[in-house]
Design brief:
By secondary structure, this protein is mostly helical. Helices cover 83% and strands 0% of the residues.
Length: 141
């Protein structure tokens, strides 16, 4: 399962690199990066494509893992069965799962805003809540 997520992360890195290479005239890493990014003539199309492709990969990653990780931990199931169960749970509860994905993202962003201490607080909360989401969706079914 971890290898599957690593493959998705690699795909995201590749898509990101290709998107940057296709849209950016020049890339400057360092102090002038933000200024260079803002002065690109095709910033809006770049941003839209970058967010859209990243969003698609994020939806895939969320869909295959929201139930799979706790299911693999709780029961003796293979990762393919866990991922299929996870995708089915997302398909059956799209609004609730979209809300849950947004809440996870918000908690992680909030944690980043407060640095390591913030993540030390928010990530256990997300993990605990994720366990209860899994129990409510899988054990109730």
């Amino acid at each position: 399962f971890a290898m599957m997520l690593a493959v998705l992360m690699g795909a995201w890195a590749l898509v990101s690199a290709v998107t940057v290479a296709l849209f950016m005239d020049s890339i400057v890493v360092g102090r002038d990066f933000l200024d260079t990014l803002i002065r690109q003539h095709n910033l809006v199309p770049f941003f839209l494509v970058y967010v859209l492709t990243g969003g698609v990969i994020a939806v895939i990653a969320f869909s295959i893992s929201v139930i799979a990780a706790p299911l693999i931990t709780d029961r003796q199931v293979d990762f393919v069965t866990a991922m299929i169960t996870s995708v089915e749970a997302v398909k059956k509860n799209p609004k609730a799962m979209a809300t849950w994905a947004f809440m996870i993202a918000a908690m992680v962003v909030l944690g980043f805003l407060f640095g390591v201490v913030g993540l030390a607080v928010t990530l256990p909360i997300v993990g605990h809540a994720s366990w209860h989401v899994y129990r409510d969706l899988v054990e109730a079914a």
